[in-house]
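Hi R.,

As promised on Friday, here is the backbone we talked about, encoded as structure tokens. Could you run it through your design pipeline when you get a chance and send me back a sequence?
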């Protein structure tokens, strides 16, 4: 079906059948996709071209890909948030299905022709309001800051709420008119889209690519930080304040680290960081990075391993899902999920293009309207500032639907912690700052300064055939994962040094039977390390005790470091202010190093040397408050920071020093005594 036929059916009030209208990035055409929709249970069941090098047989349970003998799209998947169940993560199951539109018709129409054909009429809606009032949302923000981030559950969390209303027009006609307004008024969107599955409509302008695969290149696009245009002439000064805002810098760095963890799971050498850049839209400016890496996984497996973006969940992601399930009593439906266009290129290779379902309205057949939005909560957040951010993010889509949203009662700290936000409302058509802010010399310098903060390891292309430390080539390492996939990034760094690395979840590593390896890395994870009743803490504490007792070469990171310190007799405490996403220069055994911290707990020491049953231990600590940055003893070492983080510019150098020292200084036999494995203190 071509666009004129499709629009004629919509205008006549007829059901045209499932379809999608897509403008992707800055493409000059609108894509028109038609086909049949069916529900599948798993991402692996989605129709897709077979991966390169396969025998051409679809995966188990897969529907055959339409047009498998030609280049182009095979299917458009509408992936709800509840699909996170495929990763075993907690969620509120709202029953929203995973639907796939199998492509039977595909056409392209020049954008100007498409805009001229789409209905140019005002959209009318009524009874607009947020399902969670401003005051209640602000209280949730306070609780998350104090009870989740403050107690070590993670570095950041995204909590959403939904603007609800009722359309006064036929749903498809209103959606088509809203699409036209978005195509005309919005700029900088990754996808501008209208998808109709036969039972539901999704229309919006998502700024953010979640993941794409083309020519074997996997790309992700973490976006964070929200700046609202404040008018010509003031924009450059205000934008520079925004780019220097500590909260906004930390927020983007944290999601960058989290998406690097995902890239480490889907690209053979992990992701290379490119940027940062400005994402300029009609009302807002965001900051963003691009991540790129070569991969060979089936695109459906790429989707599964990257559910879902930290910009809509938080980090570390597994515990972020637990927090969301605790703090959001209703399901998320499509918020935070993805649209995913699967296909093949002219050479027969799989392709994938998947934007995040944000800045998107869901319209039901009865005219019910839902516009979900969320704010990223970090240690600098203020309740009023995050309330306001949800209004700002909703503004563009609501304007296209004839609605506006503003704070119910701006608080005294409205906008605090997020520079130069202004009260949102319905914008005039086509409003926004003039394009080209990113080309201003001062802006380019500010972005370059942000890039200079990042670890060279993740910014440079790497040759996996040349280990940095030839003496480590062929040595083996086992990483015990405490539910933070920073371990995937750490594995890439250790492999780059020449080690052969395995990663095992903590549940698979019994404390008294740690698998053989030249080096055991007791990894990071969320939670309270002082807890005596927590199963994970008991298990990891037992692993650490076994490693010490048997003199096994050990490197402990963050939570692992804290448990190790507890076994060595050091007290542990929760920090007054969380150290989540903090970059610091610290003194490490005679060297000044720049490293990144993600912790709410710390060990304390009042001396630089300790006598322990496992031999003398040297402590690197903050002289002002005694917080321990690192320890090293005969055959073991621990670091409170994350050497693998993009914030650790000296991370690889630290790893080289500690790993070589641990492997060369490990005692020949077991340690003489075993310390108590009672309550001690982690992340």
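Update: got your reply. Pasting your designed sequence below so it's all in one thread:
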């Amino acid at each position: 079906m071509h666009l004129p036929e499709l629009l004629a059916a919509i205008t006549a009030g007829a059901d045209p059948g499932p379809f999608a209208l897509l403008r992707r990035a800055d493409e000059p055409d609108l894509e028109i996709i038609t086909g049949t929709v069916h529900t599948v249970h798993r991402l692996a069941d989605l129709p897709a071209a077979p991966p390169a090098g396969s025998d051409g047989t679809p995966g188990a349970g897969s529907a055959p890909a339409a047009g498998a003998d030609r280049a182009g799209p095979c299917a458009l998947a509408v992936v709800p948030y509840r699909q996170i169940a495929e990763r075993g993560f907690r969620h509120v199951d709202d029953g929203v299905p995973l639907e796939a539109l199998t492509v039977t018709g595909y056409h392209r129409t020049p954008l100007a022709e498409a805009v001229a054909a789409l209905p140019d009429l005002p959209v009318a809606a009524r009874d607009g309001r947020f399902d969670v009032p401003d005051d209640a949302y602000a209280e949730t923000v306070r609780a998350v800051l104090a009870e989740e981030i403050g107690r070590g559950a993670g570095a950041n969390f995204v909590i959403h709420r939904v603007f609800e209303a009722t359309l006064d027009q036929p749903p498809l006609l209103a959606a088509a008119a809203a699409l036209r307004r978005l195509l005309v008024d919005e700029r900088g969107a990754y996808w501008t889209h209208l998808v109709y599955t036969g039972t539901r409509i999704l229309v919006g302008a998502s700024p953010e690519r979640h993941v794409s695969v083309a020519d074997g290149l996997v790309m992700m696009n973490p976006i964070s930080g929200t700046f609202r245009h404040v008018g010509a002439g003031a924009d450059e000064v205000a934008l520079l304040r925004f780019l220097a805002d500590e909260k906004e810098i930390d927020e983007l760095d944290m999601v960058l680290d989290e998406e690097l963890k995902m890239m480490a799971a889907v690209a053979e050498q992990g992701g290379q960081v490119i940027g940062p850049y400005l994402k300029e839209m009609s009302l807002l400016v965001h900051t963003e990075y691009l991540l790129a890496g070569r991969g060979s996984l089936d695109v459906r497996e790429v989707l599964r391993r990257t559910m879902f973006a930290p910009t809509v969940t938080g980090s570390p992601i597994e515990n972020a899902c637990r927090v969301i399930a605790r703090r959001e009593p209703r399901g998320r439906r499509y918020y935070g999920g993805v649209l995913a266009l699967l296909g093949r290129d002219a050479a027969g290779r799989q392709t994938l293009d998947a934007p995040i379902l944000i800045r998107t309205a869901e319209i039901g057949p009865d005219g019910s309207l839902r516009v979900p939005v969320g704010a990223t909560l970090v240690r600098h957040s203020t309740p009023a500032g995050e309330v306001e951010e949800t209004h700002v993010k909703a503004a563009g889509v609501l304007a296209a639907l004839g609605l506006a949203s503003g704070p119910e009662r701006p608080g005294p700290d409205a906008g605090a912690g997020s520079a130069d936000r202004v009260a949102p409302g319905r914008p005039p058509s086509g409003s926004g700052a003039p394009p080209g802010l990113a080309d201003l010399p001062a802006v380019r310098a500010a972005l370059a300064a942000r890039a200079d903060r990042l670890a060279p390891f993740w910014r440079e292309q790497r040759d996996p055939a040349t280990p940095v430390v030839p003496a480590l080539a062929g040595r083996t390492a086992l990483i015990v994962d405490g539910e933070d996939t920073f371990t995937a990034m750490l594995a890439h760094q250790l492999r780059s040094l020449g080690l052969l690395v395995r990663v095992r979840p903590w549940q698979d590593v019994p404390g008294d039977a740690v698998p053989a390896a030249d080096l055991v890395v007791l990894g990071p994870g969320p939670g309270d390390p002082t807890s005596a009743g927590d199963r994970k803490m008991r298990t990891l504490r037992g692993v650490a005790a076994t490693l010490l007792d048997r003199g096994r070469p050990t490197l402990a990171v963050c939570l692992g470091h804290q448990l190790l310190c507890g076994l060595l007799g050091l007290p542990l405490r929760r920090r007054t202010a969380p150290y989540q996403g903090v970059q610091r220069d610290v003194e490490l055994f005679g060297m000044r190093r720049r490293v990144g911290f993600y912790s709410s707990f710390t060990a304390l020491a009042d001396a630089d040397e300790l006598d322990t049953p496992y031999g003398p231990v040297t402590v690197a600590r903050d002289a002002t408050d005694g917080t321990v940055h690192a320890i090293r003893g005969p055959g073991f070492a621990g670091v409170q920071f994350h050497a693998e983080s993009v914030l650790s510019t000296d991370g690889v150098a630290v790893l080289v020093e500690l790993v070589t020292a641990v492997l060369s200084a490990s005692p020949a036999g077991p340690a003489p005594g075993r310390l108590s494995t009672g309550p001690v203190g982690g992340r």
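One thing I noticed while checking it: Residues 3-452 form a domain with the Anthranilate synthase fold (CATH 3.60.120.10).

Thanks again,
M.
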